[in-house]
Amino acid sequence: MILQSLARLAQRENLLGDPDFEWKGVGYLLRVGEGGRFLGLQTTKEAPAAVGKRKPKPVAKRFRVPREKARAAGDRAFFFYDKAEYALGLDPEPDPAKRRPAEKLAKRSGLFRDRVRECAEATGDAGANAVLTFLERVAEGQETVALPEDCAGNDLIAFTFAPDDGGLVTDRPAIRAYWQGLRSQTDSTAAPGFLCLVTGETVPEPGNHPQLKVPGGVPSGSPLVSFNQRAFESQGWKGNENAAVSRWAAEAYTTALKRLLDRAPPHPTEDGVTLPRRNLSLSSDTTVCYWSEASEPSFADFLAPLVEANEEKVKDLYQGIWQGRRPNLSSREAGAFYGLVLSGAQGRVVVRSWFETTVEEAVGHLARYFADLKLAPNAPPFKDGSRPPAIPLRRLLESLAPLGKREHIPPHLGAQLFEAALQGRNFPLSLLQRALTRARAEVTADSWADRVRRDARTALIKGVLIRNFHKEISPLLEPTKTDPGYLLGRLMAVLEHLQRLALGEVNANVVDRYFSSASATPRAVFVRLLKGARHHARKARDEDKNKGKAHYLENLIDTICDHFDVENNGFPAHLGLEQQGLFVLGYHQQRHDFFRSKQDRAASQPSTEEVL
């Protein structure tokens, strides 16, 4: 089903408009004139617009080049374009000790030259003859080409013919026709009778499953389907016979996947035009691709900026999703919706998740996802005073990693979170466990980034409690909620506030010392904390300006403690996973309630009395 859906996408967007050619980044153009005269080696690399503080790496310009199957093993040259070691017999490796042997380079450049010679002899094309003459002069040492310092081992070099005014040699009509003729040839000795899993047609031999470059995988790429061990084979079939697809189907689904993985996929027929983005990074090695079969896939166009809370790139129609409202979609926007989560690996691409739904259901589930995670923040706004309309997905995932480092995010967790958002499923319980672990570990950190991560973690905890434990939870403080964990979290926030009122900022406050134990084994902690609170209250009342606040906090402590038999240490001995989550949530919401502005309180129902 995955391959069939991808093949339909390739047909729908005409990604195989010219099935014998494909778009690839070509780092350098080698220009030759009539008679094979060398006219220079020109780079096509340009640095994209900077995003953030990091300086972007130069990116090679894309050109339409002959479609070649990937090199799995052995030496094989591409048609009129390749790496420097094939195209010129040169290894760009700066360390002489690590360069390939001269015999190896001579063999590979000879293979490249032979393919050019075969084309030149068959077509008599002036451009092919010029390239052949140039390559022969290089092989004989009559012409020397110096590679630029920034040339990498995997940079592609293609050839241009001066009279063509910039076009690739493979764009010349005679060479194109020759290449198309080669591609149309079939091996008559191949055993017939293989059923293509994508089209259902009988094919003479299975096509190769091309390689894909997925984040986290090997630079040369890995196939989505492969049978590189005998244990993966069955019924006496060998290799790709176990998952037979036609060459067209293999190229169609691979081209569709390349389009989905590309952040700026090129238009198949219009030069310089890009297609809408259809992917989202979940971690350093995991990416989700998505697409729909709607005739007007607007929701798919805006899914990435929606989950990243980017107001500038989301239409007004869809911004209500951030508030939990489902937009009214037109019939042209309705249709099947697919999601595919991929991770790079050494042997093959790992499919972490695959789901099918409809656009209507996906929109409704996404609106519910934002409603479940909606939470009043404690982190300050940006420097310009603005706040994102929702918590971006990247912030949610970063909140689960030590110090927000995305490379430490488990790939399966991001996949499960995204799938829960689009399919309305329960969140994985491992998400709650990890959020609680990070909440205890980073409770003392107080930078702006730390506060943002705390908000995101608490929002995730709220979402899990709503979906998995069927709790009804408001984004703001709920003073009538009587869950033990929630009350104790509120109590911890009140004790922290009272201590700060009495002593100011100290090196290690009650939260720094006791948050972890209080959230798991409250009976061992809170009696001692309440004794200390009496001293803090007396000290706070010594200053006239703090008397009212101290009385308010003491009353709030009494109100919360009325739910427990404090005199007999009636606090719970242990809190389970659900109550630990409520503890973090109560602590967060009580802290937010202390610092709510008068305007905020006037705009909503006040949750507690205003601090005097």
Domains (count): 3
N- to C-terminal distance:
64 Å
Strand content: 5-15%
> In which order are the strands of the major sheet placed?
3-2-6-5
Number of helices: 19
Task: Sketch the major β-sheet.
Answer: 4 strands, mixed
Briefly note the structural class of the backbone.
Answer: alpha+beta
Radius of gyration: 31 Å
Instruction: Report the strand count.
Output: 14
Average pLDDT score = 87
* Regions with little confidence, pLDDT below 50 for 5+ residues: 606-612
Cα shape: elongated
* Helix-residue proportion: 40-55%
List keywords for this structure.
single chain; 612 residues; alpha+beta; 3 domains; 4-stranded mixed β-sheet; 4-stranded antiparallel β-sheet; 19 helices
Concise overview:
The protein is of the alpha+beta class. It contains 19 helices and 14 strands.
Structure description:
There is one protein chain. The chain has 612 residues and is an alpha+beta fold. The chain has three domains: 2-49 and 58-260, no CATH class; 279-468, no CATH class; 484-603, no CATH class. The chain is built from 19 helices and 14 strands. A four-stranded mixed beta sheet has the order 3-2-6-5. A four-stranded antiparallel beta sheet has the order 11-12-13-14, with helices on both faces. It has a two-stranded antiparallel sheet with strand order 1-4. Helix 12 packs across helix 18. The protein starts with a helix and ends in a 9-residue tail after the last helix.
